[in-house]
Amino acid sequence: MSFTPIVSALRELAAREEHSLHMPGHKRGLTTGLLFDWLGSALQYDQTEVGPLDSIHSPDGPIRRSEQLVAALYGVKATYFTTNGSSAGLIASLLASTQPGAEIIVPRNMHKSILAGIILGDLWPHFVKPVSEGGYELGITPASLQAALAAHPQAQAVLLLNPTYEGVTCNLEQLVNLAKAANCRVIVDEAHGAHFAFHPALPKSAVSIRADWVVQSAHKTLPVLTGAAWIHRLTDDYSDEHFRSRLNLVQSTSPSWLLLGSLDLAQEELRLHGYSWLEQAIARAEELVAAIEQNTPLVRWLPPATGDYQQDPLKINLLTTATGRSGYEVARHLGEYGYHVEMAKPHAVLLTLTMADGAMPIEPLVDCLAKLPSLEGGAVPQSPPPPPLPQLCLSPRQAYFASAETVVSKQARGRIAARPVYAYPPGVPLVYPGEVIDENLLAYVEELTSRGGYLTGLQEGAWVVVAEA
Ligand SMILES: Cc1ncc(COP(=O)(O)O)c(C=O)c1O
Does domain 5-270 have CATH number 3.40.640.10? Predict the structure, then answer.
């Protein structure tokens, strides 16, 4: 059996097809044109479901075989591919695990993609505030989850995050056990952790814990094209049909075969080189941090040693405080030299390395950071502490579909948000549709924007709120 069934089928088709009498419109790039000039022979693999290929909506050919290889690699019951990112995977997992109108428990630092699942399923989220320290969110505690489960015994599912955008994990096993003991389905957003299972120096992956669904953005941390992701099923309680019927609601009937081929190659790459590439990349990341700390005022932030927090060593959080410059300024400086960071915030920047960085050149980056003159006496404010959770008084679905109006900040106080507002990255909503916009939230937003932060969901500073009847 081929170990890369999708790419083998694409190669076979490219070698045997005389002329495409089907979509896509570029005809495999066999004609000349701007697209061919740009992408060249890669276009012969941008295909549709013909010949030896397969349908992503009910796969029984190379997609199915490749999914089975991934499932065996991660040791899970089944794996499903998507070309719509973890976003589609999280929505589908939520819809697969709950009845319409159900209550669910959600750590407040979850990515905004779950909002679509909440709206489609008309779910009522009970939010749990994560612990934060030094401008970083660490995760929810077992005690806070226990309290939420006790307060909402009807909850049907618990969402968990492993790791945060900044690479921090908390005691996932304990959280999963608590949710299971309360008869809840557990969905783990492991968008940033597809590599965890392949090296012991990395935090534990949820695939080795009793969750029901684990959603991984393969494209974020593996050598995979942007948008390609997979979802693992760890339970026997649901059939393939049950899950695919939900996934197909949010998935195009025309998936990109380039993305699918990249998932296929990633599983083979992980099998052949996962451990050794990660070993090299982790060593490189340590060398990079040491060189930065030796030659510049920047220092690595790590989660507190007390508690069960762990840091993905490939996500490097650098505090800019000692330079007297904000994270945004440092990011701009790096950008001028062709280095684009993953994320900037008031007092820090985040560098993301992956298993493909085992030989990354360190010196030029450190030189570039060292060139940034420190600002004597420059005061770098930390990210303001997150505001208290706003009150949810309308279901997110009702608020989202209600007639809405736009009001300036002053008039937004006490009104119900109709849209989410969030900083991207990391895409964590500050307010969900259905929540009351209160004084604390308005003050936080003002503070964040005055420190250089940019928020999505505000219309030139104005809020979209549910219209008053
Ligand atoms: C924690 C987290 N979950 C889910 C997503 C959505 O992933 P995707 O971009 O693959 O749809 C993101 C994207 O940034 C994320 O950071």
Answer: yes
